[in-house]
User: Which sequence fits this backbone?
């Protein structure tokens, strides 16, 4: 194959034909997508949209994080469309687990939540992009193609918000200071879960969760769980 593309060697008509054939195969191979959402009707909607294209195809579907992890181990794919809310695991833990299984797999998060609130933490965790379900269909297809090409996808509005925060022209929200683990625990505390509940769910000790809770309160200048809940509601961070 190396000889075919050596500029110092004359290319025969047969080789030219073979090269053209290889280019056609490469161009015609569709981008394989795995859909992960616990609502079958949502997956059906995504599939219907993808089926209207010439370059994308649904390679598999899953309704839970565990199924998604099993699927990527058995089904070749180029992009995963991952819903932010799954019944059996947090999205941050799911992204981390997927990264351990297939470090190069592009993961596009889809969510009903405002992207400015969650996107930074998810991109930091290893996601390739974040798409709001309130977006347009053609924007979703653009997002899929962008992450499939190995690039990050952020919407124009999110890019502007990040730029303003980076230049200091707009204050970053308090929760942006939190690490991914702290943010995950913050959301659960804000939802009313106890330290013991969270420890059991995350398979960590109560002492460890209590330490995280103290850090969260310190970073966000809060003194009680009710403050977390009020903040989360105000910033649309509740699942």
Assistant:
């Amino acid at each position: 194959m190396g000889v075919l593309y050596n500029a110092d060697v004359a290319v025969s008509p047969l080789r030219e034909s073979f090269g053209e054939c290889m280019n056609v195969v490469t161009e015609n191979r569709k981008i394989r997508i795995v859909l992960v959402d616990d609502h079958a009707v949502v997956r059906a909607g995504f599939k219907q949209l993808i089926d209207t294209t010439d370059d994308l195809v649904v390679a598999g579907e899953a309704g839970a994080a565990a199924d998604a992890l099993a699927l990527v181990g058995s089904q070749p794919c180029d992009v995963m469309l991952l819903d932010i809310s799954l019944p059996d695991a947090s999205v941050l833990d799911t992204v981390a687990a997927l990264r351990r299984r297939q470090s190069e797999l592009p993961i596009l998060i889809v969510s009903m939540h405002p992207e400015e609130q969650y996107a930074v933490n998810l991109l930091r965790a290893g996601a390739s992009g974040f798409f709001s379900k309130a977006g347009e269909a053609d924007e979703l297809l653009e997002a899929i193609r962008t992450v499939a090409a190995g690039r990050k996808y952020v919407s124009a509005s999110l890019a502007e918000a990040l730029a303003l925060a980076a230049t200091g022209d707009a204050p970053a929200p308090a929760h942006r200071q939190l690490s991914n683990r702290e943010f995950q625990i913050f959301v659960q505390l804000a939802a009313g879960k106890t330290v013991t509940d969270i420890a059991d769910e995350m398979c960590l000790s109560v002492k460890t969760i209590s330490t995280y809770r103290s850090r969260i309160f310190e970073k966000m200048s809060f003194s009680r769980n009710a403050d977390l809940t009020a903040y989360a509601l105000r910033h649309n961070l509740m699942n």
Summary: The beta strands are 31-36, 56-62, 79-83, 107-111, 129-132.
